UniProtKB/TrEMBL annotation:
Keywords in alphabetical order: DNA-binding, Phosphoprotein, Transcription, Transcription regulation
Name recorded for this polypeptide: DNA-binding response regulator
PANTHER family reported in the protein's UniProt record: TRANSCRIPTIONAL REGULATORY PROTEIN NARL-RELATED, TWO-COMPONENT RESPONSE REGULATOR
Any one GO biological process: phosphorelay signal transduction system
One Pfam family it belongs to: GerE
InterPro entries attached to this UniProt entry: CheY-like_superfamily, NreC/VraR/RcsB-like_REC, Sig_transdc_resp-reg_C-effctor, Sig_transdc_resp-reg_receiver, Tscrpt_reg_LuxR_C, WalR-like
Domain Response regulatory: 7-125
């Protein structure tokens, strides 16, 4: 394993799915599979022992589901650098927001193309959230209007400057730093600095939580996506 290799833990209760993902991940020069878990509890234990950088987490697993496993990983101070990329199918969309609230940094649909999965792993491992605009953002908005909404970050956008609110709105729409910079006439470095400051002010773990805060607070509404 070379320096900079992404250490990936695969968590899925289906052997064939795990084997397929393992073969795909192992084919990438910048990745290594360091463990496979068939239950959520195994995923939590292996995250602690295998020194994984990222967990590809199925939501539906026996013993402990992917949401609770994600919550335990995100709450463990010893695993502060471990990112979680959750997998879902369209019939489990109602759980996606709960997974993000629990600490996941993004999600994918299980029929994703191989190249997209590898790109997603790189994106999340680098500390960015995988939240694409369009249907994904509308889904999050719809679910956050339900009766169980609760704040994920420590503060709301009222503590932000007008410029920071503009940046947060664009983050919630799925734009990356370069796209935010182009939209607002900023340099990419300035856009990145704004995003970092916003996360600091809100006490947010990552961009995924920023999206949730933007919708929960009403800063972004479904019609604005």
């Amino acid at each position: 394993m070379s320096e900079g290799t992404i250490r990936v833990l695969l968590a899925d209760d289906q052997n064939l799915v795990r084997a397929s993902f393992a073969m795909l991940v192992s084919s990438a020069r910048d990745m290594e599979v360091v463990g496979e878990a068939a239950t959520g509890r195994e995923a939590v234990e292996l995250a602690r022992t295998a020194r994984a950088d990222l967990v590809v987490m199925d939501l539906r697993m026996p013993d402990l589901d992917g949401i609770e496993a994600t919550r335990l990983i995100a709450a463990d101070e010893d695993l502060a650098g471990v990112r979680v990329l959750v997998l879902t199918t369209y019939d489990t969309d109602e759980h996606v927001v709960e997974a993000l609230r629990a600490g996941a940094s993004g999600f994918l649909v299980k029929d994703v193309r191989p190249a997209e999965l590898l790109d997603a792993i790189r994106t999340v491992a680098a500390g960015d959230a995988l939240l694409s605009p369009g249907p994904t953002a509308r889904l999050i908005a719809r679910l956050l209007r339900g009766p169980t909404v609760r704040q994920t970050a420590e503060a709301g956008p009222e503590c932000l400057s007008d410029r920071e609110k503009e940046v947060l709105t664009l983050v919630a729409r799925g734009l990356n730093n370069r796209e935010i910079a182009d939209t607002l006439g900023l340099s990419p470095l300035t856009a990145k600095t704004h995003v970092s400051r916003i996360m600091g002010k809100l006490g947010a773990r990552d961009r995924a939580q920023l999206v949730i805060v933007a919708y929960e607070s009403g800063l972004v509404t479904p019609g604005a996506v």
